[in-house]
C-alpha cells in the first residue's frame, strides 16, 4: 500500500508543477520573440526561440513557425514567417508578448 500512496503523491506533485512549466515557457517565448528580427535565418531563430511548437509550409514553400504564449486556458500563438529565401519575413508576437510580465491564469 505504501508504494501506491507514494506513486499517487508523485503523480499529484507532477500535475501541480505542469502549469508552472507552461507559464515559464510562455514567458520565455514572449521575451525571446522580441529578439527575432526580419532577415534572420531559420538557424538564428532556432537559437533564440528553440524548436517551434508548430510548423506549417505553404504551397509556395514558405514556412511559418509558431510558439505558444498565454495561460492554460487562453493561448495565443507567436508566429514567425519565413520568405522564399528562408529568412524571417514577418514576426507576429501576441499583443501581450512583451516579455515584461509573466502570463497569468495557469
UniProtKB/TrEMBL annotation:
The keyword Cytoplasm does not apply. This is Outer membrane protein assembly factor BamE domain-containing protein. It comes from Hymenobacter fastidiosus. It holds the Pfam family BamE. Residues 1-23 form the signal peptide. Keywords: Membrane, Signal. It comes from the Bacteria. The lineage of its organism: Bacteria, Pseudomonadati, Bacteroidota, Cytophagia, Cytophagales. Coiled coil: none annotated. Residues 28-90 form the Outer membrane protein assembly factor BamE domain.
